[in-house]
Amino acid sequence: MYEKFRMLLLLIILISAFTVKLDCVSAQADLASHVEYISTEIGPRPAGSSNEEKTAMYVASQFEENGLKTELEEFKYYSLNSEDIKTSYNVIGTIEGVSDKEIIICADLDSVQDYLTGNYTVGANDDVTGLAVLIGLAQKYKDKKPFYTIKLIAFGAGEDSFTFPLITPKRTYLSPDAYYQIVYLPYLVGARQYLLTNQESVNKTIAVISLEAVGIGDPCVVSKDYYTQNNQLFVDSLVLNARLQGINAHKIDFMASESSEGREGAISHVYLPFSIAKIPSTFITCMNNPNVTSTVHNTDTEIPGYLSTDDTYDNLVEYNGNRESLEKQLETIIYLVDDSITKISLFNVISGG
Q1: Can you give the pLDDT of all 353 residues of the chain as single tens digits?
Q2: Strand, helix or coil at 92?
Q3: Is residue 64 a contact partner of residue 70, using CB atoms and an 8 Å limit?
Q4: Which of 77, 251, 260, 335 is 20 to 30 Å from the Cα of 219, by its Cα?
């Protein structure tokens, strides 16, 4: 059965590779301006902070401006780090499709605390670039109706570790194994909250792609992270499709990061609850010359500034050479994600999904 689906998917990708590609990105998109505004005007965005809320409101306003049905999902949780109850938000923008089955593209709103300095980063690359891509997709689909419904979600409180939900919804559509794994995830709070409160969506969600630090280097599709191994057919198809579109994409394992200064940590992203629920899922990040044979990636060379206070807008522009190159980098990611949505939709329609 796996081989049958693999050959079908390959045929779809090969046929569509010869089609002419138009409208790579919306003419109104100035993606770098969103990165600049959030990282410099709003700044560090600790989970549950007023700056995280400002970012949620900004993303919601951009979704609404482009005609998306937009929801702000407020949730509360307990953080062992701050020994306090915090309030955060998920921003959900819906592009209604012909079918109510869903493809979710997501990123996170908050920024990480630098392990060495104790200060919160402005997170220009991690993960304002992901938010900018969500806004760019909203622009791209402003006057388009996809076959499957697309949900663009900016999840709150993704970086706050050692947390507990204040109210845990009862298990309904999730399997017992998936339900308890998701309930006891120590972080990725907004994604955890979303899936637990929308368990019925499991049966109609076709795929989930999250975006993490996509502002520097080649796209890398994650096969395995610290917590889970992803659907290999799904990962392989995304990489193959990108390469057939002329994009130098890689398949990597990303279980941990390290730096010469001693920053290190286990790696996953906001797609994880969906992967646990057995929905085809992965996250896309970008790296300079990624070491595809290693499960640990260096934040000095492969993702400069990652997880540190060096992750600023000015440094991101410098790493790319100039602002125009940063804009082109983000446009490439939008093209990759949009084309992946098309191929995922074709595959599911033809295979009877």
Answers
A1: 445 445 545 554 444 544 444 444 444 569 999 999 999 999 999 999 999 999 999 999 999 999 999 999 999 999 998 899 999 999 999 999 999 999 999 999 999 999 899 999 999 999 999 999 999 999 999 989 999 999 999 999 999 989 989 889 999 999 999 999 999 999 999 999 999 999 999 999 999 999 999 999 999 999 999 999 999 999 999 999 999 999 999 999 999 999 988 888 899 999 999 999 999 999 999 999 999 999 999 999 999 999 999 999 999 999 999 999 999 999 999 999 999 999 999 988 887 76
A2: strand
A3: yes
A4: 260
Cα angle 167, 168, 173 (rounded to 5 degrees) comes to 145
What gap in Å lies between CA 152 and CA 107, rounded to an integer?
8
Helices marked H in the chain: 2-16, 31-36, 50-65, 129-140, 176-183, 189-197, 232-244, 272-276, 313-320, 323-350
Sheet containing 99-108: give its strands across.
Answer: 163-165, 69-79, 84-95, 148-155, 99-108, 205-211, 281-287, 218-225, 250-254
CA–CA distance, 204 with 337 (Å, rounded to integer): 20
Amino acid at site 32: A
Q: Determine the Cα–Cα distance for residues 157 and 49; give it in Å rounded to an integer.
A: 9
Q: Check whether the bond before 126 is cis (ω within 30° of 0).
A: no
Sorted by where each begins, the domain ranges of the chain are 28-350
Report yes or no: 341 and 140 within 8 Å, Cβ to Cβ: no
Q: Contact, 146 vs 94, CB < 8 A? A: no
E strand or H helix at 164, and its extent?
strand 163-165
CB contact set of 176 (below 8 Å; sequence gap of 6+): none
What is the CATH superfamily name and number for domain 28-350?
Zn peptidases (3.40.630.10)
